[in-house]
Amino acid sequence: MSLKVSYHFFVILLFLLVNQISNAQNLEAFNDIIDYLNKNKPATYSGIDSLIKPFQRDSLKMKLFLEASKLNTYNEGTSYALNALGVINRNISNYNKSIALHEEAKSYADKANSNELRIVSLNMIGVAYRRMDVIKSALDYHTQALKIAYEVNNPTPTVSYNIAVSQNSIGNIYLALEQYDIAIIQFKKSLKIEEKADNKLGLAINYHNIGYAEEGKGNLDVALANYEKSLYYNEAINSDIGRMICFNSIGGIYLKKEDYSKAEPIIKDALKKALALKDQFYIASSYISLGQLEIKLNQISEAEDHLKQGLEVSKTYNLKSSEVVSSRLLSEIHQEKRNYKAALDYYQNAVDIENTILTEQNLQYVNDIVIQYENENKNNQIKALASENEKVRQRLERNKNIFWYSMLVLVLIVMAMFIINRTRTLKRDKQILTLEQDMLRSQMNPHFIFNSLNSIKLYIINNEKENAVYYLNKFSKLMRKILMASKEKDTSLQDELETMQLYMNIENIRFDNEIDFKINVDDSINTEVTKVPSLILQPFLENALWHGLFSKTDDKRIDLNVSKNSSDYITVEITDNGIGRIASKKIRDNKKLKRKSVGIDITKARLANFSKAFDNSYSLNIDDLYEKDTPTGTRVTLNIPI
């Protein structure tokens, strides 16, 4: 027995000795590569990458290369090593450290005056920000990388590859904004470059992203086909990270198809691989997918545990999108449990985070929870009041004292009047605040802001500097006016009309300036002293644009006329020569994605509140215009008390 133990000990010792010798030889060979690079100092990215690539995921060797490059003032090598260390940190979700390393790499690329390394560094910073869902910063860095890349004459394979990386990442940003068709265009541009270079990793990434966009559009079979293509290329390059990502996505498709028997093993395998790789981004995603599956399988307790794990990882590593999804699912679980307070808290957390990422909110769901929660509280209050009334009734019956009975009734009446008056005041104040907030949210619509800036960006890209500066000034003035107007309940008619002119100037960019917009005001009206609710006309102009003129091909006009036919009112008429409400409704009904427009409802509520200060209320009429039974547009007639 003793000889057997000694034999095993000898084998283990021999293995460790051989392994140590192998590591020492490997390190010695790597040191020779470092010496060669620092002696010859190749300036191109590919010249460095051809020797270092096999070691670029080894943090110890990259640190050795970094130290040697700094010592020998080899700026290109220093930049390469810093970028490699940044990627290593990004893959373990250490995003802040990753960004700091890539920014330092960019500074050494600048010292080396290397466009290749500048582009690589900028793209890597953008990728890290995108993983954190910091969309604006991600877009800024990828756009900078693209700008430099397109200015390079005779681009190297590295520059071409990084153009593909930039376009792929910009496509991912459009995915976050739910602009799926635009995202697919970017991915296909990137795909062409990757196919030409036969870069299987790039092909795997782009096919996966196209699948994600198709899934967002509801095309599950098309999405699954793209995910399987991505998995094929990941298998070809033996990428564990790629397999994990594809398993997670394929499992999600089966989950949506309600094929739970196929979804379960794939999702669990994805989680296992994510935990082994310590990639916190996909650990959070896998926990959430598993929680979704368990909800469908009615394994509520297990689902809640896994979703909480996903939420905790998301919070720890600032993964906003994952935090939104896990919070929403936890809200649904607590709603089913009728724990409306917890459901509201989780959903409000999701909404708050989503406001920093996405361009649009779905308030209907949270309103339902609020109503249920408030109803529960009211029922409890009613029960408490009923119990108190019973005690009062019993006390009155016992005492049968008319005097005290009268006093008590008097006190109750006074209290009731005070409560009713106070409740009305609070309700009115809350309604005013809600309307103003809804109004500002409507005006500051993220889609409008993003699309406006995107249009201005196109002027910049096309080198139309004067147009870019002109519309940027208009846009900044409009934003300033909207923010100033949000602080006031009313504004002068002059300011309102100026704001509407700015709004139409910005929106007209997207119509290629085809809209003929005119404002006519009667000379008898003093626009400086006439007061109207702030930003009250914008919803009607928006409807004229997007429901009346959007589907029309030519001769697009909107006329805004202000007249005074009575001493009690001013009359505002907004007339467009669009397709009419009936045709517009048919177009909306045929759309797969239907959104409830609340702009006019908010406007009516604000007008009603504004009219309370006058003897007469507002009036609003919307008429369809016809010429020989043919729709010729829509006219909105609004009478505002003065």
- Rounded to the nearest angstrom, the radius of gyration is 32 Å
Stretches where pLDDT is under 50 for at least 5 consecutive residues are: 1-5, 7-11, 18-22, 358-374
> What is the distance, rounded to the nearest whole angstrom, between the alpha carbons of the first and last residues?
106 Å
How many DSSP H or I helices? 25
The CATH H-level superfamily of the domain at 447-641 is Histidine kinase-like ATPase, C-terminal domain
Main beta sheet strand tally, sense and closure: 5 strands, mixed
Instruction: Provide the CATH topology of the domain at 447-641.
Output: Heat Shock Protein 90
CATH architecture of the domain at 447-641: 2-Layer Sandwich
| Extended strand count | 7
The strand order across the widest sheet is: 2-4-5-7-6
- Report the structural category: alpha+beta
Q: What fraction of the residues are assigned to beta strands by DSSP?
A: 5-15%
Shape descriptor reads: globular
CATH level 1 class label of the domain at 447-641:
Alpha Beta
Summary?
With 642 residues, the chain is α+β, with helices and mostly antiparallel strands. The chain is built from 25 helices and seven strands.
